[in-house]
Amino acid sequence: MHWGFINGSPNAHGHTAKLAQYLLADQSQVSWNLVEHHVAQLGQQRQAQDDDFLAIAKEVAAVDALLIGTPIYWSDMTGLLKTFLDRCTLVARQFDFSQIPVYVLINGTQSPTTTAAGIAPAVAQLCDFLKMDFQDAIYVDTSVIVQPADYAAALHNEQQKLHMIVKAG
Fold this sequence. Notes:
By secondary structure, this protein is an alpha/beta fold. Helix content is 36%, strand content 21%. The protein contains 6 helices and 5 strands. The chain has helices at 15-23, 53-60, 79-88, 112-115, 119-130, 151-168, and strands spanning 2-7, 28-33, 65-71, 101-108, 133-141. Strands 2-1-3-4-5 form a 5-stranded parallel beta sheet, with helices on both faces. The chain is globular, with a radius of gyration of 15 Å.
């Protein structure tokens, strides 16, 4: 199975990316750090000369499974990820995203399951619109991460759940 990882973090090499690397270790994968790309805001893409959205969307349509990651910013996904997801609504007929299984990785330091309760439903709704197969949300409390060795503890139950999914693919 060939995985794609969309990193919505403004820190390309922060906890979100490292958690995804840990979860998808030994898997064929491609990743997009949105902070390293220019994705114009919805409605502004026609004026943008250097917009990377269509190239990324084309690559996303070619993966077998997708992991979307975001840290929690003010009880929601990052603006980088929100902009990318908003733009996806415009290319539903241009690219075939149908049946791609999607997982969302949500990490934060203050009870991510309650402080960011709206992220997973928003991604699930977009998946429904794009005919993708939303699977599950993976919540990680990053307050317990001090060094890379702590990833397993931070992922606790979620780690085993996703590793079973990844290995099955």
